[in-house]
Amino acid sequence: IKILRAIPQSEIDYIKNNKHLSLITLKNELHRSKATIYKYLDRTTEENLEIKRLGRKKASVITSCKIQNTGKILAENIFSMYKSENLFLVGLALYWAEGRKTGATLSMANSDPKMIRIFYSWIKKYLPLNVSLVMRIQLPIGCDKDELIKYWSLLLPDVIVKTVYYGKYTKTLNGVCNLEISGIRGARSFRNHLLYLYCTYLESIAV
């Protein structure tokens, strides 16, 4: 593991305060290599310097914890804002029943276009604006492939069909649509915490 060699804080401060100077000028004034100065120009925060010192393995743990915390905070904020709205609770219930509970993505698979449409509306209304959606379509053997791709594409015209495959045990006439969400930072933490808040809410209103 390559470790960033520490230099005096006074020199770090000098680099921070004189970013307008050229790399050659800083090199000549501080008698440091251009590579060392460049690293401090790009990463002068204590946090990033600490990551350099710890090495990549520990740094990945720190980054992972921060991402998880981001997902938790996002879930808490969204739940507190919308827990009184019916569509929000219906969408959570739908995901709890039909959604994928493992992995780093949020997705829900169903053969009923109405359920897929409700989940789609829930995503669009309540999740961050920068999320992206794709469809993965599972088809019954012997079906008209092009016709079913068209069927699901017309249902959600702004969602890209990413993969299409045949399911050995898929019996439904229209196949199964898996609507997948990406673009949520800390998706696993977000999902788990949102569902935890939902269950806590249900317990609080249970008679």
Explain briefly what this protein structure is.
This protein is of the alpha+beta class. It is built from 9 helices and 4 strands; from the N terminus they run ααααααβαβαββα.
**Structural class based on helices, strands and sheet pairing:** alpha+beta
Q: Roughly how many Å apart are the termini?
A: 58 Å
Tally of strands: 4
Name the beta content range: 5-15%
Order of helices and strands: HHHHHHEHEHEEH
Provide an overview of this structure:
The chain is of the alpha+beta class and 207 residues long. The protein contains 9 helices and 4 strands; from the N terminus they run ααααααβαβαββα. The protein has a 4-stranded mixed beta sheet. α5 (56-82) runs parallel beside α9 (187-205) and α6 (86-98) crosses α7 (113-126). The longest helix is centred in the middle third of the chain and has 27 residues, at 56-82. It is elongated.
